């Protein structure tokens, strides 16, 4: 039972982190939040600890992908802002 509780905490933490990251999702936070909720609800009855760990790992992968997406978007915006003049000088 203790293991299930620790996994539950991990799942809740993952959900909160993904909700936070979803605020800046390109298609909008509402779109992201609905999809996120559906995915978590679809898997709410999973009891096997190995399967739960697998799903947590997939969620962590999605988090890393979102962070990379946002980082790249910020990088491109900064690059455009600061280097747009250099194209004209070539």
Which regions contain 5 or more consecutive residues with pLDDT less than 50?
Answer: none
Q: What structural class do you assign from the helix and strand content?
A: mainly alpha
- Cα gyration radius (Å): 18 Å
In terms of quaternary structure, what is this?
single chain
Major sheet characteristics = none
Whole-number mean pLDDT: 88
> What fraction of residues sit in β-strands?
under 5%
Number of helices: 4
- Which percent bin holds the helix content? over 70%
- Kindly state the number of beta strands: 0
**N/C terminus separation:** 67 Å
* Helix-strand sequence: HHHH
Inertia-based shape = elongated
Overview of this protein structure:
- Belongs to the complex I LYR family.
- This is Complex 1 LYR protein domain-containing protein.
- InterPro entries: Complex1_LYR_dom, Complex1_LYR_ETFRF1_LYRM5, ETFRF1.
- The chain has four helices and no strands.
- The chain starts with a helix and ends with a helix.
- 1% of the residues are buried.
